């Protein structure tokens, strides 16, 4: 198939960033400072760090509606973070440059994949504030544009695999104590990423990101460390509530969602000769419209839920294999005409760590999903690690959508089995802590729903592969 020709100027920029980063690394001294700090002999009050990453992706087959054939994409992402310590207050700025090449008209290109040079973070942080978790606790307050990750990251996260990292603007409070307890409180608005239309995305056009001031996110999240020190040392318990309030603006139409989502988590980290657990559930209630169309003013009651359950064990043998059985549930909407919306939408949380490689593939997301499965993880040594996932992916409601594919049979006659989803990844530190190679592959073997849904995808499934090289400096 024909692919878009490289933009010479943009490619030169990407290569220049990569070459500069490599030069900085090679010139740096091996001391406690980062290579970038050592290269410029940065003062003690200034912290500099960053990364440059390049990834090639290839997709054979297509499951998305209104698209066909294979696809490929070349992605560059560069980050540079500078933090200045001014005593009780520190200041930070992080730049992000995310570009793509080789996309054609059928590539599912969006602002989560391409976002040329912009400010990812710009904040001030008040350190060593009084703590709220008893004697000896302390707190920090971060104010401004920032990335946010809390707990499992299923509710809100700073993405890793995605080529574009999301940011938020507002207040982020965190209190901790010596035992390891944490209390998080956030009140932020998401940042809209630009450009967000074709062909501006194809051309990697520069366009500043903007805060979505009428979309407000709040959260209160408490983590209690070691709740059963005798019976299950290392077991964490978490309670949280997150919410979203939004309304239309001339520049951005929304479904006017008003959500509150309380939830819990039990977590015990993997450890040799020990069982581990990751159990998280949340309810979501509120109201919304069926669409973002400004003429749609019929309010729908929302009652949705999600559950992730994972139980594993790590064996103290060669390669330290961990085997885990897991289950992911995210509710679907049974009846589009009953003035209710019961689908659990993915809003700001993670999906790759639980479900599949994403980007131009990623058939699963925590919305209308019923997916039992297992994973195997290995760590032969300090430089190698690998993992393999399998999920038998079903629709939670056979009358609701396969969300990522945008395919639906409202009659339910196509069944509910999306298919078998396989996902693998291996990583190797070429230079420890500095240069890492990642190779991954994913597959989707179509089930009855994918085969029977009206105007369904061609073929028997999809195959996705990627190769990625990340330089940290």
Describe this structure in words.
It is built from three helices and 20 strands. It is mainly β and 473 residues long. The protein has an 18-stranded antiparallel barrel. Mean pLDDT is 92; it is low at 1-12.
Short description:
With 473 residues, the chain is mostly beta strands. The protein has 3 helices and 20 strands. A hairpin with a 3-residue loop joins strand 2 (71-85) and strand 3.
Largest sheet: 18 strands, antiparallel, barrel
Order of helices and strands: HHEEEEEEEEEEEEEEEEEEEHE
- Shape descriptor reads globular
Average pLDDT works out at: 92
- Secondary-structure content class: mainly beta
Keywords:
single chain, 473 residues, mainly beta, 18-stranded antiparallel barrel
Secondary-structure blueprint of this entry?
Elements: H1 8-27, H2 35-40, E1 46-60, E2 71-85, E3 89-101, E4 115-130, E5 138-146, E6 168-176, E7 182-192, E8 210-211, E9 215-224, E10 235-246, E11 258-268, E12 274-288, E13 300-314, E14 322-330, E15 340-341, E16 369-378, E17 384-394, E18 417-431, E19 435-446, H3 448-452, E20 461-472
Parallel strand pairs: 13-15
Antiparallel strand pairs: 1-2, 1-20, 2-3, 3-4, 4-5, 5-6, 6-7, 7-8, 7-9, 9-10, 10-11, 11-12, 12-13, 13-14, 14-16, 16-17, 17-18, 18-19, 19-20
């Amino acid at each position: 198939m024909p692919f878009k020709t490289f933009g010479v100027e943009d490619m030169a920029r990407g290569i220049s960033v990569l070459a500069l980063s490599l030069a900085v690394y090679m010139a740096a001294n091996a001391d406690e400072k980062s290579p970038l700090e050592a290269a410029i002999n940065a003062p003690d009050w200034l912290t500099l760090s960053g990364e440059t990453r390049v990834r090639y992706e290839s997709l054979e087959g297509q499951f998305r509606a209104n698209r066909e054939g294979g696809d490929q994409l070349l992605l560059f992402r560069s980050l540079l973070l500078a933090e200045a310590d001014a005593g009780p207050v520190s200041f930070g700025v992080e730049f992000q440059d995310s570009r793509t090449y080789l996309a054609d008209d059928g590539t599912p290109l969006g602002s989560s994949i391409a976002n040329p040079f912009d400010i990812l973070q710009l904040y001030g942080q008040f350190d060593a504030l009084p703590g709220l978790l008893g004697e000896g606790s302390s707190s920090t307050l971060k104010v401004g544009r920032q990335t946010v990750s809390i707990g499992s990251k299923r509710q809100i996260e700073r993405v890793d695999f995605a080529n574009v990292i999301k940011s938020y603007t507002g207040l982020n409070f965190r209190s901790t104590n010596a035992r390891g307890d944490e209390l998080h409180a956030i009140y932020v608005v998401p940042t809209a990423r630009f450009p967000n239309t074709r062909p501006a995305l194809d051309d990697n056009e520069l366009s500043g990101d903007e805060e979505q001031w009428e979309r407000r996110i709040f959260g209160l999240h408490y983590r209690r460390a070691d709740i059963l020190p005798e019976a299950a040392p290392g077991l964490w318990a978490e309670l949280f509530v997150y919410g979203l309030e939004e309304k239309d603006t001339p520049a951005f139409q929304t479904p006017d969602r008003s959500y509150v989502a309380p939830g819990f988590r039990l977590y015990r980290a993997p450890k040799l000769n020990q069982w581990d657990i990751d159990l998280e559930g949340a309810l979501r209630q509120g109201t919304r419209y069926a669409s973002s169309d400004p003429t749609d003013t019929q309010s729908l009651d929302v009652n949705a839920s999600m559950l992730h359950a994972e139980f594993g064990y790590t064996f103290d043998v060669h390669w330290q294999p961990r085997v885990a059985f897991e289950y992911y549930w995210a509710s679907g909407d049974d009846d589009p005409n009953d003035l209710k919306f019961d689908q659990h939408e993915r809003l700001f949380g993670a999906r790759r760590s639980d479900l599949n490689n994403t980007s131009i593939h990623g058939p699963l997301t925590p919305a209308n999903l019923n997916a039992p499965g297992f994973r195997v993880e290995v760590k032969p040594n300090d430089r190698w690690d690998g993992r393999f996932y399998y999920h038998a992916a079903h629709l939670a409601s056979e009358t609701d959508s396969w969300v990522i594919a945008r395919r639906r049979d409202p009659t339910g006659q196509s069944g509910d089995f999306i298919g078998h989803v396989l996902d693998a990844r291996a990583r190797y530190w070429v230079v420890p802590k500095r240069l890492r190679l990642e190779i991954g592959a994913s597959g989707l073997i179509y089930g009855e729903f994918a085969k029977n849904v009206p105007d369904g995808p061609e073929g028997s499934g999809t195959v996705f592969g990627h190769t990625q090289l990340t330089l940290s400096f």
